[in-house]
Amino acid sequence: MLQSGGLPRELTVAETMRMWAGTCSTPRSVDEVLGEVDLSHRTGVRVGSLSGGEQRRLDLACALLNDPRVIFLDEPTTGLDPESRARTWDLLGTLRDRGVTMILTTHYLEEAERLADRTAIMHAGRIDGVETARRLGERGTGAAGPAVLIVTSHGRPRQLKQALAAGIPGFLRKTSTATEFAAAVRTVHSGRRYLDPDLAVAAIGAGESPLTDRETEILEAAGRGGSVEQIAAQVHLASGTTRNYLSSAMGKTGAATRFEAWRIARDRDWL
């Protein structure tokens, strides 16, 4: 289920569902699926005349027509009114309880917490492990709360500092030995903090970054390559604004190019 399904606007809801059923090997009853998404009373209405929320529900109906075992949902309740959103959550919760695997993207934290068994926070196109771990840690307190240990291949002082600031009790590199890993698990499980010893020393010796959060984000994007326009699109800023941030970061690092600024910042553990 995409953010915009692109269904033919000239067809009615019923015609759309019959067309979609023709692509399914074992389609469910059209009337049953439309009832689940509360569109039974709109079967004769053209898709182009539906409200934005109704079009989202029709997209969901198409996705459910083949009784899928796995379903991908891209912001399924965007544009829905609160009542329709709650009804959709109930439907998706029923599907989850029936054993349907759902991979869902959303901007609503309440939606993720209500529907997801596992959550991940995306930032600049990548999973933000520190933020995800922090939110997992907030799911309970004391003995009821999860003991969070980050095991990462991004073992740099900056990531360790971020984890500490987020209150994560354990941080370990993937290259650690089995003995170190076992010690970390036991320590965090007992309610104490465990930090990778080499990273802890490096973090103490690393100076504070002079880069702002926005400059850091833009430099990280610059390190992946691309034009200023492409970098601007990644960070959702205007090209001129992005150039200004890059110039500022280059000045702080003493670099002549944006890629050199990225390299220097990374060598100094600012990224």
Characterise this structure:
- This protein is mainly alpha-helical and 271 residues long.
- The chain folds into three domains: 13-115, 3-Layer(aba) Sandwich (Rossmann fold); 146-208, no CATH class; 213-268, Arc Repressor Mutant, subunit A, CATH 1.10.10.
- The chain is 50% helix and 9% strand.
- The chain has 13 helices and seven strands.
- Strands 5-6-7 form a three-stranded parallel sheet. Strands 1-2 form a two-stranded parallel ribbon. Strands 3-4 form a two-stranded antiparallel sheet.
- Helix 7 links the parallel strand 5 and strand 6.
- It is flat, with a radius of gyration of 24 Å.
Layout of helices and strands, plus pairs?
Layout: H1 13-21, H2 30-36, H3 52-64, E1 70-74, H4 82-97, E2 101-105, H5 109-115, E3 122-123, E4 126-127, H6 129-137, E5 149-152, H7 157-165, E6 170-173, H8 178-189, E7 194-195, H9 197-205, H10 213-223, H11 228-235, H12 239-253, H13 258-267
Parallel strand pairs: 1-2, 5-6, 6-7
Antiparallel strand pairs: 3-4
Helix pairs in contact: 7-9, 10-11, 10-12, 10-13, 11-12, 12-13
